Amino acid sequence: MATVYLHIGAPKTATSAIQSILAGNQSHLMDRRVLYPGSMRSGDAHHLLVCDLIEKYQGKPMPDIWYGSHPRGIAWDALKEEMASCEGAVDSVILSSELFFGQANNFRPALEEIAEHLAGHEVKVVAYLRRQDQLYSSFYNQDVKGVRQWCASAYEFYETHQMLRHDYLALIRPWSDIFGKQQIILRPFESDQWPNGDLVAEYSATFGGLELETQVPTENNEGLGPAQLYLKRCLNRVGYDKQENETVVAILKELIHESPVGNCQFVNRGLYRRYLDRWERVNEKLSNEYLGGKALFDRPIPHPQDVELYEFDRFTLALAINHILRLFEKGAYPDQRSLFFRAAFLAISEQNLWRSLDKNDRQTLLDGV
Q: Does the domain spanning 3-132+166-206 belong to CATH 3.30.160?
């Protein structure tokens, strides 16, 4: 029977790009006896396989956006039918969804069900891992910028985020308990360790040598800059409809021109040191349990003294507030005027910028709030 490569993520390791490539090469893969199933996909990924299990075992209804026109609760049956129709014609099957990774709430029964559905096949569980400090920075920036509209502190974010509360070891071990430690393929999301630094070649080799010749799709996942990030958090605290998020981000980038925040410490050095100690212990155990003692990452996690603390320029923020007043005075974006005025007022209060405004601007702001 065909070998099944169960690609579980993790998020922030170009999963969407790879899924797009695999879906776009579906017929090419079939010519090479590789099946990338299409009957239960949400977009380019096999998210429905996970959504059905989450609804079944966690009692959590998944958003309609994942399902589209697909009925709920039949994804695994659809998969088995598609695999059966290709029996003898394929040597391997690739299933890919980053939603598999990070599930910790009553997920053991779900893993047992996955094993039942794939019984008779050799299952290789593929997980790409991003260095934890990079994952933290990227997730925080994304969730402030995106429709999750995170508005609390970076500390609260770390302590409550599903992917960060449960370390890599705790998230990988249940998979090895079910499928066997020898069936776990752990790879670093670190270009220095890829063939010629090429992402497609790296994934192709991991999935048994697909020989895909294609470019990685360009993704618009660019994070926010320092002042943009702070003002977006103020906007999130004021609150607005998630459907307006793209418009709000576009206005924010019109107001403040900044490069995205790089890898930095969003928490104080003491907390970062505590996180670092935990990350290093976890990575050492991963190395010993799954990699024969080889380090997972070539580049070590930097120590607190080597990482910049997150901060933004108050002058840049003051200029942005001035731009808000000028932009909305001209009648631009009338539906977002009150939102931005209230967020600006919040930022002024927190950063003690009231005196930076002249009398007329103060009154304009108060009238807008």
A: no
